[in-house]
Amino acid sequence: MEIERLSTGVVKIDEMLKGGIPKGFFVAVVGEPGCGKTIFCMHFIYAGLRRGEKAIFVTTEESRESIIRQAEQFGMKYSEYIEKEQLVIIDALMRPRGDPYTLTSLNPEELVEKLISIKRRMGYEHVRLVIDSLSAFWLDKPAMARRYSYMLKKILYQWNFTVLATSQYAITTSEAFGFGVEHVADGIIRFRRSLKKGILKRYVIIEKMRQTDHDLRMHEIAIIDGKGLTVLGPVEARREDIALPEHVIKKIVKSSKKAEEEIP
Fold it and tell me: Is the pLDDT of residue 172 over 50?
């Protein structure tokens, strides 16, 4: 049975995914702030809009106006599709209660109710959905991350969505932010960054995509004004790509010393 795939809007990433993201998947887009996650999600939404599909973009960390301005900066005319009611941007940044496309709290149940309400108005055809970021919904209760992620995936699957859910990730905060979405996701697209000779470099790697013989190499990316996210090409393996995080190394050393002390 042939799998229907959706273009991400970035040609090279589509190639890495053997044609795109399988329709109906729940995909985690993870990484540190400033890696390119939001711009990648903008491309995904715009690719659908240009094909006549409908889309919903949930923003928890920027305003609706900020998302529209950024999209315009990269040549994506979101405002035109909003006027045509093909695109809805749900704003979670303390909008007035009279705004029909806002969240009054970062509550997963309220998010689901809002999404289903909008989906009913859009119809039962397929809709692309971005939640940027999902980790915002468990900031005060990180232990609930996996449970909330599973609940959202289970419900949204029944409503004919393909979902990109971003999650902030850093070595120092991974226990709080990183693993709830990743454990339930059908795919994981990880963005990374590093400094080389004082210059910021960004990277992307497909860590997981079910039903897909995807590229396993890390690729360097660039964010270009007027164009958006561009893949520059694969990079050679570096020490920092394979080295264990420092806190993990310390735990291993501590455990080894303890074991040695217990040997008579």
Answer: no
